[in-house]
User: What shape does this take?
Amino acid sequence: MSERTIALVTGANKGIGYEIAAGMGALGWSVGVGARDTQRRGAAVERLRAAGADAFGVPLDVTDDASVTAAAQLIEDRAGRLDVLVNNAAVTGGMPQEPTRVDPATIRTVVETNVIGVIRVTNAMLPLLRRSASPRIVNMSSGVGSLTRQSRGGGEQAVGPVSAAYAPSKTFLNAVTLQYARDLSGTDILINAGCPGYVATDLNGFSGVRTPEQGAAIALRLATLPDGGPTGQFFEDAGVVPW
Ligand code: NAP
Assistant: This one.
């Protein structure tokens, strides 16, 4: 088996996911670029390799059972185990999406990708993660999923636009992260949620104020937690994010 750390990042063809993969490449890891589009995946792998990363393409649509099963098989055949999984792929469903006017189909799409997709990928990869000496799972969440930040008044403002699908999907993801940590207690697997901050990417029409590289930092930190580190928690660069 390879001595290199083996990682998989979902939605790694662009934005924050790409920079997470680049950061892992710089650490000398072997990184699977999970992406659903053949061309975008190939271009990202090529760019990462040109920068010196040991990157390989993993065809992956997180909403598709067969695709996820095939991705796990690809990693099994290539490495025989997985050390780090970053569940980064997500969609917003488009804005505006106020609860009073939202199309239920939007909620289904967003939850299918941002929550069920994470569960689908995580469970498919768990047998491979269990073979790692120090398995880590990072779920890319968002501060908009924090009910504390959504409901705060006074001098502070609630974060993000009113949202029936995207923000609640991240609240759901946070809750699921905590339940995984409970289920996996007693194993070496650490699973945490990370918030990248407000990052300029396609997701928000490049309105964010941070760079994708800055957004990737929290994922890299949670991917490199020492054994016995925190699990079932929600972090941003500055520390713990309130649920
Ligand atoms: P992005 O640039 O839009 O990238 C999203 C990635 O997810 C793309 O690679 C996209 O692939 C992929 N994806 C979407 N649906 C997929 C599916 N069904 N299967 C596989 N891949 C899929 O967004 P980003 O800003 O980098 O976001 C990365 C993560 O950070 C997300 O979890 C997001 O919620 C979170 N986040 C972002 C911000 C921010 O300010 N940007 C803030 C808080 C949290 P395609 O290219 O094929 O569409």
Notes: The chain has a mean pLDDT of 96. The pocket of NAP is lined by residues 10-11, 13-17, 35-37, 40, 60-63, 88-91, 113, 117, 140, 142, 195-196, 198-199, 201-204, 208 (CB under 6 Å). The chain is about 40% helix and 15% strand.
